[in-house]
Write a structure and sequence with these properties.
Elements: H1 2-5, H2 7-20, H3 31-56, H4 60-81, H5 88-102, H6 115-125, H7 131-144, H8 147-171, H9 173-179, H10 182-205, H11 207-211, H12 222-228
Helix pairs in contact: 2-8, 3-6, 3-7, 3-8, 4-7, 4-10, 7-8, 8-9
Amino acid sequence: MLGLAGAGHCLGMCGGIAIALRPSSGASRALPIYYHLGRLVSYSALGGLLGGAAAAVDLAAWTLSLRFVAAVLLVAMGLSVLRIWSGISRLEQIGAIIWRWVAPATRPLIPPRYPLQSFLLGSVWGLMPCGLIYSALTWSAATAGSSINGALLMFLFGIGTLPAMLGATLAGQSIEAFFRHPRLRQFIGISLIFAGVWTAYIAASHAEHLLMPPKASGELSPLTLDAQSPPSNHHH
C-alpha cells in the first residue's frame, strides 16, 4: 500500500528516467522487466541489511524510536505530495551526496542493450535519493524483526511501485499524467499522512508495554502478596 500510495512521488523523481528506458527499435521488449527487477532486488537488499541491523539491537526503545521516525517520514512525504511542506527534500539532499559517488556507475549501462545491463542499471538506480524509500526502509526496519522479513517488506514495497514505474516505461506520458491528476495526488498525500499518523498511534499505544521492564520470576504483585498473607486473628 505504501508503494502504491507513493506512485506520484515515484513518477516525480524517476518518471522521466522510466520513460527514457523504453526499449528502442530492435531491442528486446523484456528489458524494462529486467530493469525493474534489478530495482526490486536493490530494495530487498537494503531492507534485509537494515532489518538485520535493527534486529541485532535488542532494545525496545530503539525499535520504538524507529517506528516514530517512520511515522514522521510518512507524514512528511504526504505533506510533500500535497505540496504543503517540502521538508522531506532536505533528507533527499543528504542522500544525493552518496548518489554522486554511485551515479558514475550508471553511465556505461545507458542505454541498456542486454538484460544484464538493464538489471544492473535497475540495481544501481534503487540507490537514488528518495524520501519515500527512506520512509519504507525505516518502517520495515522497525517492524521486520529479521533480515529476511526486512527484505520481504521492501520487496513488496517495490511491487507496489510497479504500476506507476513500469507503467511509465511501457505507456509513457499517458500513465504519468494519470498519476499526476490533482485529485489522485490529494488522495495519495492524505493516504500517506494517515499511514504516518496510524503508525505513530500504534507505536504510542505500545510504548508502555515495550518499555516496561519484565518482572522477575520471583517478584510478586501487591495483589498476590495480599492473597498470600495470613488473615489476622481479630478475636485475639
